[in-house]
Amino acid sequence: MAVYKLPFFLAIRVNSYKGGDMTNSLEQINKRTQWFRDARFGMFIHWGIYAIPARGEWVRSFDKIELDDYLKYMDQFDPVDYNPRAWAKAAKKAGMKYMVLTAKHHDGFCLFDSKYTDYKATNTKAGRDLVKEYVEAVRAEGLGVGLYFSLIDWSHKDFPKYKDIHSPHYKDKRFKDEKIDWDNYKNFLHKQIEEIVTNYGKLDILWFDFSYEDMYGDKWGAKEIVEMVRKYQPDVIMDNRLETSGEGFGSIVTENPSPYSGDFVSPEQILPYEGIKNIDGEDIPWELCLTMNNNWGYNANDKEFKSSKLLIRKLVECVSKNGNMLVNVGPTARGYMPKESLEILEDFGKWFDKNSESIYGCGKAKDLPKPDWGYYTQKDNVIYAHIFEAPIGPLPLIGLDKDEIDYMAYLYDGSEVTVSDSWVIKAYDKLTFAQIYPGSSTCQLPDDTDTVIKIVLKNNN
Ligand code: GLC
Questions:
Q1: d(CA 158, CA 402)
Q2: Quick check: CB of 47 below 6 Å from ligand 1?
Q3: How far apart are CA 26 and CA 333, in angstroms?
Q4: Protein residue whose Cα sits closest to atom 5 of ligand 1
Q5: Cα atoms in the 13 Å half-sphere on the side-chain side of 103
Q6: Residue 275 above 60 pLDDT?
Q7: Which residue in 72, 278, 355, 433 has the fewest CB atoms around it within 10 Å?
Q8: 3-class DSSP state for residue 325?
Q9: Residue 147 has pLDDT above 60, yes or no
Q10: Phi, psi (5° rounding) for residue 457?
Q11: Residue from 153, 266, 296, 327 to probe ligand 1 pocket by mutation (most atoms less than 8 Å from CB)
Q12: Left if phi > 0, otherwise alpha if psi is -120 to 50, otherwise beta: which for 19?
């Protein structure tokens, strides 16, 4: 395991990849992720039998539930309200361009019909392959099809128990002298991943989760996994968790990304204070994944949902830093999405209805300092001013010169916004201001969450 002497934000654990015929250059990564970086916004869905105890997806580990006791939830799993088309419609209406569903989480229960286990949705009252219906629905709505797949499987006899810090049986003396056949587990893991990449048509995203301690890279047979995935899904993009987790960046930020570095960094529950770059200062694709409340899987008692206003503003911040945002929904055991989640998605949709062009295909505004009233995003010669905080008086456009501006307009109604020539800015004659309150200083913005002004630059800029 080589740890490069990198600046702290690059301090990462990398595998000393011994070379081979599998290159993974930034050029290839950028080509593969172009659609993803244009999409900017997706829906994560954590769903499984853990929605029955309804205390989050780690309930088996946290509560140290015996496997036999946990398997009883299979008998209860009866998702009568499962309607993935409704899920996909809700995501699309919210402005999301792709979805990622947990085909299998750490508990090992498969929403898909795997030949390699009986621990699957087809053996519950659902009696069918729930992933198949999901991919068909997502595709029908024209969204990117993503599947999350857990590298960890606490239910498998050959997955470590006593020594594994995440296992429900960590330090459980009954397993102190456990004898496991790791090659058998690895083979099972590869076979199930092969099912995922061959049985459900074209996939757009494979979201592996997660590596830790000595469980990373070659331990999973990651190179063979990627070779196999690329054979069946040459254009699919993968996250970086075959070699790290939400805690690290992985070799994708080094000068020599491993074949299993993935195509994007996956910061979790933290928005990087600046974009993510590699050792040469080049932008690396990244995606913030976060929960709407405090849980990925459904938690009946967790009503601490973030406000729509906060989440919309965090999406803008991600895009202003060349990142994506993947917002999670944890459906109930019956299969419907919690009303609080649907309300947030509705609010996203209302904002996207008027402002989507300031997100899709956008990224960091070139050479502009972050304004204190909000954020800039940019696409080609159009800069978008996202105003979170109403200024007193005209809006300072620090870094922009009025001579480079062709015109400005509010996105919400298309009305013109002029360059201010108000007396109140006379002392700042070197700066450019937008006259955002024509004829008054109400300091009331049209959209209290994020009012967007489109700033079209003259083509020679
Ligand atoms: C963490 C959680 C896991 C969740 C993942 C999503 O790894 O442990 O339950 O699926 O984050 O990023």
A1: 66
A2: no
A3: 41
A4: 209
A5: 32
A6: yes
A7: 72
A8: strand
A9: yes
A10: -85, 150
A11: 296
A12: left
209 CB near ligand 1 (under 6 Å): yes
Confidence of residue 440 (pLDDT cuts 50, 70, 90): low
pLDDT above 80 (res 460): no
The helix or strand, by DSSP H or E, that contains position 312, with its residue range, turns out to be helix 308-320
Radius of gyration of the chain, Cα coordinates, nearest whole angstrom? 24
Q: Pick the residue with more confidence: 164 or 10?
A: 164
Distance CA 385, CA 448 (A): 14
The beta-strand segments (E) located in 332-422 are: 363-364, 374-379, 382-387, 395-396, 405-410, 416-419
User: 281 in the Ramachandran plot: left (φ > 0), alpha (ψ -120 to 50) or beta?
Assistant: left
What is the average pLDDT across 426-436?
95
Residue 201 near residue 112, CB atoms below 8 Å: no
- Give the model's pLDDT for residue 13: 46
Predicted pLDDT at 442: 72
Q: Is 57 in the pocket of ligand 1 (CB under 6 A)?
A: yes
Whether ligand 1 lies within 6 angstroms of the CB of 296 is answered as yes
pLDDT(9) > 60: no
Nearest to 348 by CA among 450, 253, 225: 450
Ligand 1 pocket residue status of 289, Cβ below 6 Å: yes
Residue 162 Cα to ligand 1 midpoint, Å, equals 21
Split at pLDDT 50, 70, 90, the class of 459 is confident
Ligand 1 centroid–CA 391 distance in Å is: 39
Q: Of all residues in the chain, what percent carry a pLDDT higher than 90?
A: 91
Residue located nearest, by CA, to atom 4 of ligand 1 = 296
- Please report the atom of ligand 1 found closest to the CA of residue 57: 9
Span 431-444, mean pLDDT? Answer: 83
Ligand 1 atom nearest the C-alpha of 297 is 9
At residue 452, the pLDDT reads 98
Measure 97 CA to ligand 1 centroid, in angstroms: 21
Ligand 1 midpoint to CA 209 (Å): 7
Torsion-angle region of 94 (φ positive above 0: left; ψ -120 to 50: alpha; else: beta) = alpha
